Every structure is written in structure tokens, then in C-alpha cells.
């Protein structure tokens, strides 16, 4: 197994989200790995948890990364959050990300969950989970 591609994959996903016109039109640069201190924007994207499984084979080391990208908003209703989630899916699914280490074999949507949280359910959150197959070169 190789976990060595993890940081490269995260960086490439972040850059893909930040550079996508559709995502930028909806959240600007409010895409975070670590939430900043102070007030947060009304809607933002957060890179979240990751689980990794070995997918090495006779050709070399590889891994399957199951990672989450979250959309969080205080906007009423789920419509705005779903628009951001759709833009995220559009830019990531099937993307040919250039990694600083290793190689992306494929990137697929796995599942999503939408829920209310916070005081009186005013915060909407959609967690999108993706599967990325990588090879370490």
C-alpha cells in the first residue's frame, strides 16, 4: 500500500475546486482544508475526512482514497447548497488531475448526504464522498 500520494491528491482536488469557474461563481475562494479563524462566509466548501485502502497490484503500489468534500451554508433551504454540490461533482468526476506525486487512475462520485444542523437547524450541510484510485510512481 502507498499513502504517499494522499497529500498530492488533496492538493490537486483543492486546486481543481479553486480553479473551476462554476464553483468559484458560487463560493468564490471560500474553499478550506482548515477553517479560518473569525467569521465564516455564509456558504463555503470544506475538504473533509479520508479513508484509504490498499489497491497495490503486480504493477506497483496503489490506493483507493475515499474522501469527503462538504458544502456548508446558512442560506435558507437546500437549493443553494445543492447548486454548489452539483458544481463540485461536475468538476471532480472524471477529472484528469495532475498530481505532484503518483498518478490518478480515476475519480468517481460515491455518495452524498444532506442534513440540517446548528441552532434550530439553520445550517445546511451536504457531504459528498468521492473515490479516487491512484498509483504511486
List the helices and strands and how they pair.
Layout (H helix, E strand, L loop, with lengths): L5 H14 L1 H7 L3 E2 L10 E12 L7 E12 L5 H14 L10 E15 L5 E13 L2
Parallel strand pairs: 1-2
Antiparallel strand pairs: 2-3, 3-5, 4-5
User: What is the CA–CA distance across the termini?
Assistant: 12 Å
The amount of helix comes to 25-40%
Quaternary status of these chains? single chain
> C-alpha Rg, in Å?
16 Å
Number of β-strand runs = 5
Structurally, the number of domains stands at 1
Which secondary-structure class do the elements indicate?
Answer: alpha+beta
The low-confidence runs, each spanning 5 or more residues with pLDDT under 50, are none
Q: What fraction strand?
A: 35-45%
**CATH fold node name:** STM4215-like
Shape: elongated
CATH architecture type? 2-Layer Sandwich
Just give the CATH class.
Answer: Alpha Beta
| Count of individual helical segments | 3
What is the string of helix and strand elements? HHEEEHEE
Largest sheet: 5 strands, mixed
User: Strands across the major sheet, in which order?
Assistant: 1-2-3-5-4
Average per-residue pLDDT, rounded, comes to 94
Description:
With 137 residues, the protein is α+β, with helices and mostly antiparallel strands. It has a single domain (6-34, 41-135), classed as STM4215-like, CATH 3.30.2000. It is built from three helices and five strands, in the order ααβββαββ. It has a five-stranded mixed sheet with strand order 1-2-3-5-4. Helix 2 runs antiparallel to helix 3 (79-92).
Amino acid at each position: 500500500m502507498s499513502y504517499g500520494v494522499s497529500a498530492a491528491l488533496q492538493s490537486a482536488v483543492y486546486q481543481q475546486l479553486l480553479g473551476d469557474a462554476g464553483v468559484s461563481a458560487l463560493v468564490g475562494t471560500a474553499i478550506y482544508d482548515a477553517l479560518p479563524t473569525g467569521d465564516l462566509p455564509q456558504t463555503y466548501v470544506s475538504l473533509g475526512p479520508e479513508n484509504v485502502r490498499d489497491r497495490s497490484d503486480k504493477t506497483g503500489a496503489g490506493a483507493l482514497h475515499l474522501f469527503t468534500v462538504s458544502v456548508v451554508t446558512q442560506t435558507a433551504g437546500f437549493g443553494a447548497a445543492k447548486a454548489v454540490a452539483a458544481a463540485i461533482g461536475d468538476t471532480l468526476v472524471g477529472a484528469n488531475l495532475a498530481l505532484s506525486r503518483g498518478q490518478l487512475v480515476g475519480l468517481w462520485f460515491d455518495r452524498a448526504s444532506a442534513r440540517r444542523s446548528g441552532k434550530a437547524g439553520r445550517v445546511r450541510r451536504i457531504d459528498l464522498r468521492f473515490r479516487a484510485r491512484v498509483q504511486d510512481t
